[in-house]
C-alpha cells in the first residue's frame, strides 16, 4: 500500500485528498453549527427570553465569533502570536531609545547612572546623586 501511494503523482494525490479535505470541512462546519444551534436553543430562550435559531443562523453566529474572537486554530487562537510579536517590537523600541539616550549622555551622567543602578536601596535615583529622605 505504501509503495503504491509513493508511486502516485502529485496530481493523483491531490485528486484523492481534495475531496476528503472538502468533506472534512463540511463535517466540521455541520458539527459546529449543530453544537451552536443546540446550545443556543437550550440556553438562550430559558435564560434571556430570546428566540430559537436555525442551523444557518447558528453557522453565521459561529463565523461571526470566529471573526471577532479568533479560535479554531490548533494553537488556540491567534492572539498569542500577535502579543508575542508586539512585546518584541516594544522591547526593540525601548532598547533603541535607551541606546539613543546613552549616546547623548556625558561621561559624568553615565557614571551617575551606573551608580544609581548599583544602589538598589532606594536612597538615590539613577541620575540624581543627592540623598533622598
Provide an overview of this structure.
It is a single chain. The protein is mainly alpha-helical. It is 74% helix and 0% strand. It folds into 2 domains: 1-69, no CATH class; 77-122. The relative contact order is 0.05.
Defining traits:
single chain, 133 residues, mainly alpha, 2 domains, flat
What is the subunit organization of this protein?
A: single chain
Write the element-wise H/E pattern from the N-terminal end onward: HHHHH
Q: Low-confidence parts lasting 5 or more residues at pLDDT below 50?
A: none
Number of strands: 0
Question: What helical percentage do the residues reach?
Answer: over 70%
Mean pLDDT: 81
Largest beta-sheet details = none
Question: Would you kindly provide a brief summary of this structure?
Answer:
The chain is mainly α and 133 residues long. The chain is built from 5 helices and no strands.
Secondary structure layout:
Layout: H1 2-7, H2 10-48, H3 55-69, H4 79-104, H5 107-118
Amino acid at each position: 500500500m505504501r509503495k503504491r501511494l509513493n508511486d502516485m503523482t502529485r496530481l493523483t494525490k491531490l485528486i484523492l485528498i481534495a475531496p476528503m479535505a472538502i468533506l472534512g470541512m463540511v463535517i466540521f462546519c455541520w458539527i459546529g453549527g449543530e453544537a451552536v444551534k443546540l446550545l443556543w436553543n437550550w440556553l438562550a430562550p430559558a435564560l434571556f427570553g430570546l428566540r430559537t435559531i436555525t442551523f444557518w443562523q447558528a453557522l453565521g453566529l459561529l463565523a461571526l465569533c470566529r471573526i471577532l474572537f479568533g479560535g479554531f486554530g490548533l494553537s488556540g487562537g491567534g492572539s498569542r502570536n500577535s502579543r508575542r510579536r508586539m512585546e518584541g517590537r516594544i522591547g526593540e523600541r525601548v532598547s533603541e531609545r535607551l541606546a539613543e539616550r546613552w549616546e547623548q549622555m556625558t561621561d559624568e551622567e553615565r557614571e551617575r547612572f551606573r551608580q544609581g543602578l548599583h544602589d538598589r536601596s532606594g536612597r538615590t535615583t539613577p541620575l540624581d546623586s543627592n540623598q533622598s529622605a
